[in-house]
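pinging the channel bc i need a second pair of eyes. not urgent but kinda urgent?? the chain im working w is below, pasted from the shared doc
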Amino acid sequence: QVQLVESGGGLVQAGGSLRLSCSASGRAFSSYAVGWFRQAPGMERDFVAAINWSGGSTYYADSVKGRFTISRDNAKNTVYLQMSSLSPEDTAVYYCAAKPLISGPVPVRSKNYNYWGQGTQVTVSS
């Protein structure tokens, strides 16, 4: 079991950048796939990006491809989401999620993740 804590959210102007962190406690985090999701008010929780256990495979929603980069440092039990060229449409609460997985496809649907953080607010002003 892992506990996840997101940080790095805040208020940024359109065109700016932020880096979110997802810090994990617990055992064997390096054997977990991790995803980032976001949820705007009144909307469903949407997939943003995911990374496999080693960091060798990454996946992105079309809406963020080329602007966001997911990475991980297993020595620090942390997954990052570097966000650039932010727009007001990126405003949401961002969640990280984890699933024990060392083979097979990394899930992009929220229901396939076992553990969730509490979320961090990202607000992009126009």
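so The chain has no helices and eleven strands. and The chain has a mean pLDDT of 96. — does that match what u expected or am i reading it wrong
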